[in-house]
Write a structure and sequence with these properties.
Helix content is about 20%, strand content about 30%. The protein is of the alpha+beta class and about 280 residues long.
Length: about 280
């Protein structure tokens, strides 16, 4: 993906002053349309449903008496929003709450939802979760067959959809996953590590070819959201499934993890926190 000059306006990769009083202007957004254009995705006819699920672990504020309070932010940004929220700006924005007094947890939640909706240019959903709730939820796991035990030779480390192979004579309904997903930040080149689940119905996808394809994204530069949409579109076009769901759970960076979910099936995506997150 060629670098969009508008990305130069983001705080990514630049020295940063951390502001500790509420500053909504710190938020930055990135239009989805330029990221989707090379993939042949049109906003008026999205080929998928889904959302970007965020967990924010660095959220704290002061109550009316000056005592710090904290929560885990769970943010759901629909895939239909015109913009994604840039992750470093979200980190800086959340840290601006740290020395700001709020009357209640509900006020914090309303403030977050209002500001983040403005940044995404469409409604987003915000939940504040206690640490006790996070602990009670525990860790989840991807259901299905792991690709990671396959003994394969790999030579491609840049996105190669031509690696994907199917058996048109065999139709299946299956779920497979791998923890070997890695891509690169399009601005800084920093690695983004993740786990990937693919559920589909249709011609059987050769597992070795699918693993080689996922590994071929290892040097791909793209935001989490764009990378998952690329995987979805490559599978959709090359393998012709009748139903398809692609769900990536990326590791935390800067107190945030981003988990894009794209599916041909409508409905709310599941929130799964894996052990490595």
């Amino acid at each position: 993906m060629s670098k969009d000059p508008r990305l130069d306006q983001l705080p990514l990769g630049k020295p940063t002053d951390y502001v500790s009083t509420y500053t909504p202007s710190l938020l930055r957004s990135v239009p989805r349309a330029p990221l989707r254009e090379p993939l042949g995705i049109e906003a008026e006819a999205l080929p998928f449903h889904g959302a970007d699920l965020w967990n924010g672990y660095e959220l704290s504020w002061l109550n009316r008496r000056g005592k710090p309070e904290l929560a885990v932010l769970r943010l759901q940004v629909p895939a239909s929003t015109p913009c994604i929220i840039e992750s470093k700006s979200l980190k800086l924005y959340l840290n601006s709450f740290s020395q700001t007094n709020f009357a209640s947890r509900a006020e914090v939640s309303r403030t977050l939802e209002s500001d983040l909706t403005l940044a995404a240019r469409a409604p987003v959903s915000v939940r504040l979760v206690t640490l006790d709730q996070v602990q009670a939820d525990g860790f989840g796991h991807f259901a299905g067959t792991s690709l990671d035990t396959l003994d394969v030779d790999v030579t491609e480390y840049r996105a190669q959809p031509s690696l994907l192979q199917t058996d048109r004579e065999v139709n299946v309904r299956e779920s497979v996953f791998t923890h070997l997903l890695r891509s690169l930040c399009p601005v800084t080149g920093q690695p983004d590590w993740g786990s990937l689940q693919i559920q589909y119905t249709g011609p059987a996808i050769d597992h070795a070819s699918l693993l080689r394809y996922v590994v071929s994204l290892r040097e791909h530069r793209g935001f989490h959201e764009e990378t998952v949409e690329r995987i979805f579109m490559d599978l959709h076009r090359r393998c012709r499934p009748s139903s398809l769901t692609v769900y990536a759970c990326y590791l935390r960076r800067g107190g945030l993890d981003i988990n894009p979910y794209r599916s041909t099936e409508p409905g709310d995506p599941p929130m799964i926190r894996l052990g490595r997150q």
